[in-house]
Amino acid sequence: MQSDPNRGNLHKIVILNPKGGSGKTTLATNLASYFARRGPPPTLIDCDPLGYSMRWLDNRSSKRPKVYGIAAHDHCTESGKGVELHAWPGSRQMIVDLPAAIPENQLYYQTYDADSILIPVAPSEIDIYSAARFIANLLLVAQFDRRKRNLAIVANRTRKNTVSLRMLMRFLSSLEIPVVAQLRDSQVFVRAAAQGIGICDMPPHLVRNDLDALESVVTWLDNWKMRRFDAATSGITRRAPEAEVLTPMLAGHD
Ligand SMILES: Nc1ncnc2c1ncn2[C@@H]1O[C@H](COP(=O)(O)OP(=O)(O)OP(=O)(O)O)[C@@H](O)[C@H]1O
Ligand SMILES: [Mg+2]
Question: Is the pLDDT confidence value at 147 over 90?
């Protein structure tokens, strides 16, 4: 999937990890709530046929700060084709929630024009093994260029002082890709998901530590223009694939 190449100030954030249940939708919906609260309304693009981001949006009260939703799963799984998507006019962020199973040949289309790519990784042996394979594919198959500095990892569902967390952090530090935050394994994420809100919408005393971690992700994301400028001045560019232009169906509140 591609976004409008003339999108100017629109920040395209892609959240991916082929490992199911790593926290992609949780991160996408929490970022959407955060940006919505800050304004202007962001656009949340759900590429998963299961549609959990759109379900989250359906549960969101119209009294909450607006998040625009696009159900785009039909257009994100076509093998070998690029599809152009447009965010809602006025959005500054376009957050793309990708499904677990992405064919290898789709990786390039999904990532080549992303300003920021976030990979949530959970601390279990199987998640670490799967993340190692996936990141290798991203670098090789999708010709991802680390020098662009637009890729970061979020350690998700972490528990303090556990062997699995130490194993995860050791693995991540070997990758030379920044780990921008550690999100705790916490029921606040589960509760927020069920209500169509983000943790930033919950009482501050319940979420203080979790919100600090989410804000670390936002701080890294907000630096996207500087990262893009640095890449451009270093002469790092990527060739755009041929794209089919589609206006996707809109879902969620109008
Ligand atoms: N930090 C966390 N603390 C507690 N529960 C979490 C956390 N992150 C995610 N979860 C829960 O784990 C489950 C899977 O999370 P989520 O749906 O975000 O993963 P996903 O990567 O989008 O999954 P899929 O690959 O199926 O799309 C959900 O029930 C979610 O509420
Ligand atoms: Mg998901």
Answer: no
Closest residue (by CA) to atom 8 of ligand 1? 23
Tokens 């790593």 correspond to 22
Greater pLDDT, 19 or 241: 19
**Total domain count, the chain:** 1
Average pLDDT of every residue of the chain:
85
Centre of ligand 1 from the C-alpha of residue 23, in Å: 4
Q: pLDDT tens, 15-43?
A: 999 899 999 999 999 999 999 999 999 99
How far is the CA of 113 from the CAs of 93, 107, 219, 254, in angstroms?
14, 11, 20, 28
The mean per-residue pLDDT over the stretch 216-222 comes to 98
**Angle subtended at Cα 153 by Cα 239 and Cα 123, rounded to the nearest 5 degrees:** 140
Tokens of 27: 């991160």
Ligand 1 atom having least distance to the Cα of 156: 1
- Any atom of ligand 1 within 6 Å of the Cβ of 26: yes
Map tokens 């600090």 to a residue.
212
Domain that holds residue 187: 2-251
